[in-house]
Write a structure and sequence with these properties.
The complex is a heterodimer. By secondary structure, chain A is of the alpha+beta class. In chain A, 21% of the residues lie in helices and 21% in strands. In chain A, strands 1, 4, 5, 8, 9, 10, 12 and 13 form an eight-stranded mixed β-sheet that branches. In chain A, a hairpin with a 5-residue loop joins strand 2 and strand 3. The longest helix of chain A is centred in the N-terminal third of the chain and has 22 residues. By secondary structure, chain B is mostly helical. Chain B has one domain. Helix content of chain B is 81%, strand content 0%. The longest helix of chain B has 30 residues. The chains are: A alpha+beta, B mainly alpha. The structure holds protoporphyrin IX containing FE.
Chain lengths: 322, 209
C-alpha cells in the first residue's frame, strides 16, 4: 500500500546535503527518493530492477490508526540528521559512515525470562509479524523534533510470542558491537555496546514499535537498520538502533546514556516540557525542516502521547523519575 | 623591526584586505542562510558557526601580543583592535541568532530558558563583559583612560575562559573540540603568567614586598 503523499522537496533544500555527504550517497539518496515516488509506476511498466540496489521497498504493510495526521519531515533530513554515535558524534557522520554496516544476514538473540529463548534470524522473526506504517513524532533530548513515517511491528507481539515468564519485569536491548562496522565504537564516547531498557508495561504498550523501515522502504543503515526500537513518548536516545539482543529481566537494566551521566539522562526519559535537562530547558523544540524564522514548537507532555501512556506513570514523581 | 617603513597607502591596503578576510566567514554564513543551505537544523547550525567564529576571533586577538614579543615587531598589535572588534561583531551575530531565531524575541521564552541553562547564563555574562571593551576600543578612550584602560581590557582573559567553559557546558559527551580550544587558550594565557600572577596575588601581599 502506498502512502498518500510524499512531501515535495525543493531543489534548494536538497543541495546542502552535497556539502557533507559524499557524492555517492547523495546520488543513491536522491535515487531512492525518486524510486520511492515512482516505484509503482515503474513496477507496472516492468522497468524497475527487482534487486541489486539499496533501500528495497517494503510492499506489504498496512496503515496504522496510531499515526499522526501530520506531514512527515523530508526524507533527506530524516536520513542525514542522525544521532548514532556508533558512526560518529556529528549529525552528518552516520549518513557518511553507515554503509560499513552489514545488515544481511542479521540475527537477534532473545534471552532471559522467556519461554522460548534463542538466536533468531531476523527474517524468521519478520515472517510472523504484521508490518504497519506509523507516523510518529520523534523528540530528541537535544530539543529538536521530526515526524517520521516508520514501518514496523508491535514489540508486544514479539514479546508475547517469546512467552515471557512472570519474572519478566524489564526488557533490555543491546546494539551490535563491532568497531570494524561501526567505527565510532573505536572512540570511547559512550560505553559500548549501547544498551537501553524499558519497563515491561512500557514495552507492551501498543505504541511501542520495532521498526524495520521508514518512508516505505527498508531502514537506511544510518537510521538503525535492520531493526530498531521506537518509543515515541520518550526522548530519542531510548529508541535504540541496530538491535542484536533482547533480554527480559527481573532487574532494571543499565542503560548507556544513564551510565554516562546519571543526573542528566534518566531511565524513564519521558518527554516532559516541565522537567528541564540540567543544562537546558525542554519546554520548546526546534522543528527539523522548518523555515528559518519559524518559532520553536511547544513541547508536549509525553510528546503528545499522554492519552495512551500517562496511565503507566500514575502516582510517580516524574521530577524524580525523569 | 621591519626594515622598510610602509607608506600610509600600503597600510591602508593591507588593513582593508585583512578587514575583508575577517568578514568572509560572515559572508559565507549569510550566503548559506539566504540560499537555504544551512541543513536540517538551521538554527543550531547558525549557533555553531557564529559561536565558533566568536571564539576563534577571541583567540586570534589574544595571539597578537605574544606574536609581537616572539617576532619582535609591532605589526601584530596594529591589528589587535580590529580583531577585537570582530570578536564583538561575531559575538553580536551569535547573540542575535539566539534572540531572534531561538527565542523569537519573546521575553517570556527568555525568562523561562535562561534560568534553566547555565551555559546561556555564562554566554550572556561573557557578552556583557565584551560590551565595555568594544565601547572603549577607540584611541581617544585609550588615551583618556590611560592605565585604567589596560586594567579594564584585562577582562578579556576572563571572557575567553567563560567562552571556553560555555562551549564545554553545552557539549554532549564529545569534548574534542572544546578541548582543542582550551589548549590554545592555555598556551595564550601562559604568555600572560606575570599579569595573571599579579591579578591573583592579594593586594596586601604586594604592599608588603
Ligand atoms: C563571548 C561570548 C561567546 C562565545 C565565545 C561563544 C562561543 C560559542 C561556541 C564556541 C559555541 C559552540 C559552537 C560549536 O559547537 O561548534 C557556542 C554555542 C552556542 N552559544 Fe555561544 N558563545 C558566546 C556567547 C553566547 C551568548 C551571549 C549566547 C546566548 C545568549 C550564546 C548561546 C549559544 C547557543 C544557544 C549555542 C548552541 C548550543 C547548542 O545548540 O548546542 N552564546 N557558543
Amino acid at each position: 500500500m502506498a502512502r498518500k503523499k510524499i512531501p515535495a522537496i525543493k531543489e534548494n533544500e536538497v543541495t546542502p546535503l552535497q556539502l557533507f555527504n559524499n557524492s555517492r550517497s547523495l546520488i543513491s539518496a536522491s535515487r531512492r527518493q525518486f524510486l520511492a515516488q515512482g516505484a509503482g509506476l515503474l513496477l507496472a511498466s516492468g522497468l524497475m530492477p527487482t534487486s541489486g540496489w539499496a533501500g528495497n521497498k517494503i510492499t506489504d504493510y498496512k496503515r496504522s490508526s496510531l499515526s499522526l495526521n501530520e506531514t512527515p519531515t523530508p526524507y533527506e533530513y530524516v536520513t542525514t540528521y542522525n544521532n548514532f554515535y556508533e558512526f560518529g558524534t556529528s549529525k552528518g557522520d552516520p549518513a557518511v559512515n553507515a554503509h560499513l554496516l552489514k545488515t544481511k544476514p542479521w540475527s537477534v538473540t532473545i534471552e532471559g525470562e522467556v519461554g522460548k529463548p534463542g538466536v533468531y534470524d531476523l527474517e524468521d522473526i519478520l515472517k510472523r509479524q504484521q508490518l504497519e506504517e506509523r507516523i510518529y513524532r520523534l523528540r530528541c533530548v537535544e530539543a529538536w523534533s521530526m515526524v517520521v513515517p516508520w514501518i514496523g511491528f508491535s514489540l508486544a507481539d514479539l514479546i508475547k510470542q517469546m512467552e515471557p515468564t512472570s519474572k519478566a519485569k524489564y526488557v533490555e536491548f543491546t546494539t551490535l558491537y563491532d568497531p570494524e562496522q561501526m567505527p565510532g565504537q573505536k572512540r570511547r564516547t559512550l560505553k559500548w555496546p549501547y544498551t537501553e531498557g524499558l519497563r515491561i508495561d512500557e514495552a507492551m504498550n501498543p505504541l511501542t514499535l520495532m521498526a524495520t523501515g521508514l518512508y516505505g522502504e527498508e531502514m537506511p543503515n544510518q537510521n538503525g537498520a535492520p531493526l530498531r526500537l521506537i518509543v515515541p513518548w520518550k526522548y530519542g536516545f531510548k529508541s535504540i538502533k541496530s538491535i542484536v539482543k533482547i533480554r527480559l529481566t527481573e532487574q532494571m537494566p543499565k542503560t548507556s546514556w544513564n551510565e554516562s551521566a546519571r543526573h542528566e539522562y534518566g531511565f524513564y526519559a519521558n518527554v516532559n516540557p516541565s522537567v528541564s535537562h540540567p543544562r537546558w530547558s525542554q519546554s520548546r523544540e526546534r522543528v527539523i525542516g522548518a523555515p528559518l524564522f519559524t518559532p520553536k514548537r511547544d513541547t508536549e507532555m509525553f510528546n503528545g502521547y499522554g492519552e495512551q501512556v500517562a496511565e503507566l506513570y500514575k502516582g510517580m514523581n516524574l521530577r524524580r523519575f525523569f | 623591526m621591519v626594515r622598510k617603513k610602509l607608506s600610509r597607502i600600503q597600510w591602508g591596503v593591507i588593513k582593508t584586505a585583512v578587514f575583508i578576510l575577517c568578514l568572509l566567514p560572515f559572508m559565507a554564513i549569510s550566503w548559506d542562510a539566504v540560499n537555504n543551505l544551512l541543513g536540517p537544523d538551521p538554527i543550531q547550525t547558525l549557533h555553531f558557526r557564529t559561536g565558533d567564529w566568536t571564539l576563534r576571533f577571541l583567540l586570534i586577538t589574544l595571539t597578537m601580543s605574544p606574536l609581537q614579543r616572539l617576532l619582535k615587531t609591532p605589526i601584530p598589535i596594529r591589528f589587535r583592535r580590529m580583531f577585537g572588534l570582530f570578536t564583538f561583531f561575531y559575538a553580536s551575530t551569535h547573540m542575535m541568532v539566539w534572540l531572534v531565531l531561538d527565542q523569537s524575541l519573546s521575553l517570556d521564552n527568555m525568562l523561562q530558558d535562561i534560568p534553566e541553562s547555565p551555559y546561556i547564563i555564562l554566554g550572556l555574562t561573557a557578552y556583557s563583559l565584551l560590551i565595555p571593551l568594544a565601547i572603549t576600543s577607540t584611541t581617544g578612550m585609550m588615551r583618556r583612560l590611560g592605565r585604567r584602560w589596560t586594567v579594564l581590557h584585562r577582562t578579556v582573559y576572563l571572557i575567553a575562559v567563560f567562552g571556553v567553559i560555555h562551549f564545554f557546558w553545552l557539549t554532549k559527551l564529545d569534548y574534542q573540540e572544546p578541548l582543542i580550544y582550551s589548549l590554545i587558550l592555555g598556551v595564550l594565557l601562559a604568555f600572560r603568567w606575570r599579569i595573571l600572577k599579579a591579578i591573583f596575588t592579594p593586594k596586601s601581599a604586594i604592599s608588603k614586598t
